[in-house]
């Protein structure tokens, strides 16, 4: 049996710790882990010398409150104690992002990440969960990302951060048919960001279904119907645009769920809002160190916007 492709999760700041605590609580519940947390090794869990399996996770914050709440939670004993890193730090984003090397707090956090990576047999990548407004979630994550990309260039990196308020949509999937679930999945009311996909082009998409006694071909037929209803929003040159995947195990506390992950040119509106906020922050003197106004973040965002604008302008047949 081939070794598991391990993924290391890094949770930075109060936001990252709270989201990470809930993430691992749900994961442990789904895997039906008991008090001993015994299981076979896989992507998310590693084995201790005692034989117990623990999350491949590192938590870091500049205040102990969030880590203390994590330890006191229902699954606080499952984490490696050395992977809950606390170190006081009070500097600003701009002052430290552009300084030489990592500070003491970053070294402590990265040391825990490196030790976790050394325990892996076939490291696949990292996922970082953090906030964007606080010192730890923004500055620390930026420094760690640069270090990870430098030392693990072949590993995948996924970041998760709450950027915009989610739409509050209470959807009951208890008795939803495949058609209803697909319609709710593609509805504008269930988007996790404020955008208008009806006026954009969907370049690629993947639909993930969990739970219920469906057949994959039934779900794929419903996806094709949804795609045909809004054919102008999809690329005619890509008939197999939407990839589908189904898992018989439902998420915790619900009987069925559906998630649509799409690469759509509608994301331009989100990028433009982020760019405006970035420029506003610079104008108000948010960055004490005053780096170059044309530094990489803004330039990369402008380049990405130009790519999506060019795709929107081209005829569908020319976008390959």
Automatic annotation (TrEMBL):
One of its GO terms (cellular component) is microtubule. InterPro entries: Tub_FtsZ_C, Tubulin, Tubulin/FtsZ-like_C, Tubulin/FtsZ_GTPase_sf, Tubulin_FtsZ_GTPase. GO terms for molecular function: GTP binding. Keywords: GTP-binding, Microtubule, Nucleotide-binding. GO terms for biological process: microtubule-based process. Residues 41-211 form the Tubulin/FtsZ GTPase domain. This is Tubulin/FtsZ GTPase domain-containing protein. It comes from [Myrmecia] bisecta. The lineage of its organism: Eukaryota, Viridiplantae, Chlorophyta, core chlorophytes, Trebouxiophyceae.
């Amino acid at each position: 049996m081939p070794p598991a492709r391990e993924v290391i999760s890094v949770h930075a700041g109060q936001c990252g710790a709270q989201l990470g605590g809930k993430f691992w609580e749900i994961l442990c519940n789904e895997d039906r882990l008991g008090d001993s947390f015994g299981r076979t090794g896989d992507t998310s869990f590693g084995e201790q010398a005692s034989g117990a399996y623990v999350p491949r996770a590192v938590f870091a914050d500049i205040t102990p409150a969030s880590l203390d709440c994590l330890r006191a939670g229902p699954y606080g004993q499952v984490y490696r104690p050395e992977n809950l890193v606390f170190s006081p730090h009070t500097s600003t984003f701009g002052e430290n992002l552009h300084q030489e090397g990592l500070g003491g707090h970053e070294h402590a956090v990265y040391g825990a990440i490196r030790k976790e990576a050394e325990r892996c047999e076939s490291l696949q990548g990292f996922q970082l969960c953090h906030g964007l407004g606080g010192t730890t979630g923004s500055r620390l994550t930026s420094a760690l990302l640069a270090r990870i990309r430098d030392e693990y260039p072949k590993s995948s990196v996924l970041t998760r951060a709450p950027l915009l308020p989610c739409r509050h949509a209470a959807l009951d999937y208890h008795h939803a048919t495949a058609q209803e679930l697909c319609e709710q999945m593609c509805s504008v009311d269930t988007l996790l960001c404020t955008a208008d996909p009806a006026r954009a082009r969907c370049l690629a998409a993947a639909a993930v279904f969990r739970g219920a006694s469906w057949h994959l071909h039934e779900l794929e037929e419903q996806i094709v119907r949804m795609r045909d209803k809004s054919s102008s929003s999809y690329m005619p040159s890509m008939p197999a645009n939407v990839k589908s995947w189904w898992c018989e195990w439902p998420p915790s506390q619900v009987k069925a769920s559906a998630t649509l992950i799409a690469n759509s040119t509608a994301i331009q509106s989100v990028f433009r809002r982020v760019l405006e906020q970035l420029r506003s922050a610079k104008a108000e003197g948010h960055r004490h160190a005053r780096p170059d106004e044309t530094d990489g973040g803004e330039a990369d965002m402008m380049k990405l916007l130009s790519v999506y604008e060019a795709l929107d302008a081209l005829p569908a047949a020319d976008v390959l």
